[in-house]
């Protein structure tokens, strides 16, 4: 089923039907998944892969990242990509073999339209090319690596996840804390969503977009005074109001300083109201943002009761609340089938943090600073294996138990690390898509 | 003789989506119901299968072309206004009348003849205008506008009969279902109370969805009866668009009659398909001279130029819009590389070569698909790729807030009253007219040496009048030529409009 996304809901509030169990929740047919995108800038150059132990001791994170990626990333990712196979019953591997990958190698050289016949080939290429960044593209009519061999019109994107992208940089004009270069992606992966064409994606993003305009337009939300407010907007407002005090007034303190509040003033179209409020605020500049907001609300109310029903005034407050809280979506990422997506589980070059999936349950508690970093991961793998060696030494004559060292070899690397729960989230999500696909497929038993 | 041709045409029009179905009789005379043309409005699903003379061929097509031109002109003067409606109706009754079969007063034979002419002329023009992307776009735009106009003019029985012909999955909600839906979604005031509610796959009403005039639930769109028109018109546009593409693909393989070819070509050349041809030879402008020409840049380009200086960088769409414009004014590739290299002063040579040089060469057709890209028209700048946070591209008349726009105009040397005038146009959605006015004032000021005119009244008001701005490069050329295009031959003024559509009214 195609989801009609009340995006605010997804991002700041729990899903409405919280009756489902956790597993079903993020693995439901809704098929959405989120990634904390900690990886905007690309990784620095990688050096030849060496023994993990020695690499781990090198200072450059890039090298470590390359090692880690070799061992872990491709497996988890590959799982999802292969899942779409099962969906495409016609040709069981097309969704992997016809999927575009793009590598960014040293000196920011982009290599687009790569494709692989299977997981092994992909791994080998990753080891050989040592990309600093891997992007995922669409599934094409022809294997992307053969794109040049067919007629220009015959190479076309067919499917891609429907993705919503929120970038921290888009919040620069309103936020007063935190550094940029972070964001979150929402992937909608069920079959119908994957098959949407550009025009359909565009209609969806337009439906959802409330924040419009570039750097030259300070007022970015304008509600149409002649129309009834659309239910999507009224629901969004409900949610936004719930969180406004906490996020905007307390955490961001948007009215604390004159520089900050003048931004808000510029969003009030009515000159008279704007001046009145400015005067009030000027009187006691040190008032808290809460106080000032209350004064703003009072002023609006007084003006309205004086002038009678006035849509513009009535909407002013709503528009401001939305401008500060409604998700700012990057239209281009959603609109184009051919737009590349940052690969999950990639690593931020400066912080070394891994881009991880988030379950919708964990939004409130998710802390971007708590996700594992590459260095930690390597330490974890190493100490896991050390422990394995230790325990083997301590119980040399236990013949029934499998030798732990051997077991640790069999265990995929990621299971030895704190990345494990994230990969499991991902696996559950993938399992959910599979289940939904089976349900939809009339030929499946 | 013509039979063969007609058959040829039929083959090319190919896509035969459903037949003429339904069978809505109403009070229409039997003759009409059983003729090939039972409906007053047509979806033009089936190509004509009949013989016509070559004279008829030509005159039918030319008549329809008159109508399409009138449609375009009327829309320019104010889409959706009574005046627009009247103009289209006038042209229709002169060239392409279509009487109702239920009003009486028109003989069935004539009604059938009218519908036949409507049918045939549509298909001839389809053929004539499928030759290039620009022509297809123009034809599609005008035909859709014509269809919209007619749909609004006819009565509900005619509309119903059209709906039957289209037949797609459209569910009418019963009053109970409607009440239930409204309660579940908590949307009392959203839909008009006394109207029926329809449920349809959201993909059929993308623009209603995009404008939030529908409510989405689980991939289904819920639309009010009053929006049904949009649905029908969309369907028409979609089918015609697809048919035009099919036709275009088949065109090279078509064994056209030598007698038809010139007629077809002549037809479409009335709406010439030249791309914007720079009047400025490449090389006329150097990297160093760009800055000295900014006085002739339209506001969109001044903004980009200013931001480029200020930030030593522009984002992708900004680079495209500005870069192609510079190409249009005559900046050659080597000069362009030099210009951008200097402009991105905070970047290392290496970064520049890796990240940007390719794109610049690409714009000049030296990389990738080797398409020689043309500068963006106002229409494209205004309607596509609206800027988002951090972007500086777009059209200031469209994409800047009123305050910013006014400041810009003021900065451009306009007096308060002039600022108000121009900004007013922009606010009403007449972005290109605002831009035209702005240039007129600029030229006027330049001629007057910047001093206020001593002549009061009529002469001062009459001022400079130039052709409408449809392209930033045309703005540049006009500004440089003091209101005239350099090679202002009879065809000159049409060329921008021809390739990029014309001044349009945009819906906010
Ligand atoms: S109307 Fe055209 S030329 Fe004028 S500013 Fe807008 S886009 Fe530029």
Automatic annotation (TrEMBL), chain A:
InterPro entries: DNA_primase_S, DNA_primase_ssu_euk/arc. GO terms for molecular function: DNA-directed RNA polymerase activity; metal ion binding. Residues 396-405 have a biased composition (Basic and acidic residues). SUPFAM superfamilies: Prim-pol domain. It comes from the Eukaryota. It is an enzyme of class 2 (transferase). Residues 387-413 are annotated as: Disordered. Keywords: DNA replication, DNA-directed RNA polymerase, Metal-binding, Nucleotidyltransferase, Primosome, Transcription, Transferase. Its EC number is 2.7.7.-. Pfam families: DNA_primase_S. One of its GO terms (biological process) is DNA replication, synthesis of primer. GO terms for cellular component: alpha DNA polymerase:primase complex. Belongs to the eukaryotic-type primase small subunit family. This is DNA primase.
From TrEMBL, chain B:
Residues 295-476 form the DNA primase large subunit C-terminal domain. This is DNA primase large subunit. Its cofactor is [4Fe-4S] cluster. Binds 1 [4Fe-4S] cluster. DNA primase is the polymerase that synthesizes small RNA primers for the Okazaki fragments made during discontinuous DNA replication. InterPro entries: DNA_primase_C, DNA_primase_lsu_euk, DNA_primase_lsu_euk/arc. [4Fe-4S] cluster binds at residues 300, 378, 395, 435. CDD domains: PriL_PriS_Eukaryotic. One of its GO terms (biological process) is DNA replication, synthesis of primer. Transmembrane segments: none annotated. GO terms for molecular function: 4 iron, 4 sulfur cluster binding; DNA binding; hydrolase activity; metal ion binding. One of its GO terms (cellular component) is alpha DNA polymerase:primase complex. Residues 487-508 are annotated as: Disordered. It comes from Mycoemilia scoparia. Belongs to the eukaryotic-type primase large subunit family.
């Amino acid at each position: 089923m195609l989801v009609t996304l009340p995006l605010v809901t997804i991002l700041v509030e729990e899903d409405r039907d919280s009756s489902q169990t956790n597993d079903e929740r993020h693995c439901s047919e809704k098929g959405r998944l989120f990634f904390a995108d900690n990886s905007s800038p690309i990784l620095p150059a990688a050096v030849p892969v060496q023994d993990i132990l020695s690499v781990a001791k090198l200072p450059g994170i890039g090298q470590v990242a390359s090692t880690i990626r070799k061992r872990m990333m491709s497996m988890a990712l590959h799982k999802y990509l292969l899942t779409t196979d099962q969906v495409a019953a016609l040709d069981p591997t097309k969704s992997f073999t016809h999927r575009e990958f793009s590598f960014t190698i040293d000196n920011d050289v982009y290599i687009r339209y790569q494709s692989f016949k299977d997981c092994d080939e992909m791994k080998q290429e990753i080891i050989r090319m040592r990309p600093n960044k891997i992007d995922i593209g669409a599934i094409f009519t022809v294997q992307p690596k053969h794109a040049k061999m067919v007629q220009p019109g015959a190479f076309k994107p067919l499917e891609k996840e429907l993705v919503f992208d929120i970038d921290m940089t888009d919040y620069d004009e309103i936020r007063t804390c935190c550094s940029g270069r972070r964001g979150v992606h929402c992937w909608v992966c069920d079959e119908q969503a994957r098959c949407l064409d550009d025009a359909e994606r565009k209609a969806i993003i337009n439906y959802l977009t409330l924040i419009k305009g570039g750097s030259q337009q300070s007022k970015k939300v304008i509600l149409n005074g002649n129309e009834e407010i659309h239910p999507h907007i009224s629901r969004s407002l409900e949610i936004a109001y719930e969180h406004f005090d906490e996020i905007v007034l307390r955490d961001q303190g948007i009215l604390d300083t004159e520089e900050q509040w003048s931004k808000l003033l510029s969003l009030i179209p009515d000159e008279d109201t704007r001046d009145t409020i400015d005067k009030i605020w000027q009187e006691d500049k040190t008032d808290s943002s809460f106080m000032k907001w209350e004064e703003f609300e009072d002023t609006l109310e007084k003006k309205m009761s004086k002038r009678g029903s006035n849509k513009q005034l009535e909407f002013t407050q709503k528009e401001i609340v939305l401008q500060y809280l409604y998700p700012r979506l990057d239209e281009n990422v959603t609109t184009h089938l051919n737009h590349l997506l940052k690969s999950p589980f990639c690593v931020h070059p400066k912080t070394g943090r891994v881009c991880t999936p988030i379950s919708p349950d964990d939004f409130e508690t998710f802390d971007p600073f708590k996700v594992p970093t590459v260095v930690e991961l390597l330490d974890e793998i190493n100490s896991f294996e050390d422990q394995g060696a230790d325990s083997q030494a301590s119980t040399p004559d236990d013949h029934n138990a499998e030798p732990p060292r051997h077991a640790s070899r069999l265990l995929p690397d990621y299971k030895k690390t704190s990345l494990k729960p994230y990969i499991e989230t991902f696996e559950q999500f993938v399992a959910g898509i599979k289940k939904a696909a089976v349900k939809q497929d009339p030929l499946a038993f | 003789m013509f039979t063969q041709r007609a058959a040829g045409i039929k083959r090319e029009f190919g896509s035969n989506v459903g037949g003429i179905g339904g069978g809505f009789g109403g009070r229409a005379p039997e003759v009409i119901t059983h003729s090939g043309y039972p409906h007053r409005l047509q979806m033009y699903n089936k190509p004509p299968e009949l013989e016509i003379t070559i004279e008829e061929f030509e005159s039918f097509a030319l008549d329809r072309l008159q109508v399409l031109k009138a449609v375009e002109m009327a829309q320019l003067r104010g889409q959706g206004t009574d005046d627009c409606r009247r103009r289209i109706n006038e042209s229709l009754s002169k060239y392409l009348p279509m009487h109702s079969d239920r009003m009486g007063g028109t003989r069935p034979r004539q009604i059938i003849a009218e519908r036949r002419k409507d049918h045939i002329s549509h298909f001839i023009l389809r053929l004539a205008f499928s030759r290039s992307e620009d022509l297809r776009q123009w034809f599609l735009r005008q035909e859709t506008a014509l269809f919209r106009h007619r749909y609004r003019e006819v009565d509900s029985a005619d509309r119903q009969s059209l709906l039957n012909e289209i037949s797609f999955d459209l569910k009418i909600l019963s009053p109970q279902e409607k009440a239930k839906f409204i309660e579940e979604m908590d949307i009392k005031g959203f839909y008009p109370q006394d109207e029926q509610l329809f449920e349809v796959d959201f993909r059929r009403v993308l623009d209603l969805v995009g404008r939030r005039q529908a409510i989405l639930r689980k991939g289904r769109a819920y639309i009010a009866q009053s929006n049904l028109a949009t649905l029908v018109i969309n369907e028409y546009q979609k089918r015609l668009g697809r048919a035009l593409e099919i036709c275009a693909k088949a065109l090279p393989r078509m064994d056209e009659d030598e007698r038809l070819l010139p007629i077809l070509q002549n037809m479409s050349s009335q709406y010439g398909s030249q791309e914007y041809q720079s009047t400025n030879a490449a090389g006329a402008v150097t990297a160093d001279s760009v800055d000295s020409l900014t006085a002739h840049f339209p506001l969109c380009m001044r903004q980009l130029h200013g931001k480029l200086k200020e930030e030593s960088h522009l984002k992708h769409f900004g680079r495209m819009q500005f870069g192609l414009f510079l190409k249009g004014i005559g900046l050659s590739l080597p000069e362009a590389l030099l210009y951008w290299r200097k402009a991105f002063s905070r970047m290392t040579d290496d970064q520049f070569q890796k990240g940007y040089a390719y794109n610049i060469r690409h714009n000049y057709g030296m990389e990738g698909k080797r398409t020689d890209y043309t500068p963006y028209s106002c229409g494209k700048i205004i309607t596509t790729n609206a800027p988002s946070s951090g972007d500086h591209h777009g059209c200031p008349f469209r994409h800047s807030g009123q305050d910013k726009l006014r400041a810009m105009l003021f900065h451009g040397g306009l007096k308060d009253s002039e600022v108000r005038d121009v900004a007013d146009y922009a606010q009403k959605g007449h972005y290109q007219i605002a831009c035209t006015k702005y240039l007129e004032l600029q030229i006027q000021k330049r001629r007057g040496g910047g001093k206020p005119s001593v002549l009061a009244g009529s002469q001062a008001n009459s001022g400079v009048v130039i052709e409408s701005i449809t392209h930033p490069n045309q703005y540049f050329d006009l500004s440089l030529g003091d209101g005239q295009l350099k090679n202002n031959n009879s065809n000159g003024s049409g060329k921008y409009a021809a390739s990029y559509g014309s001044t349009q009214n945009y819906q906010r």
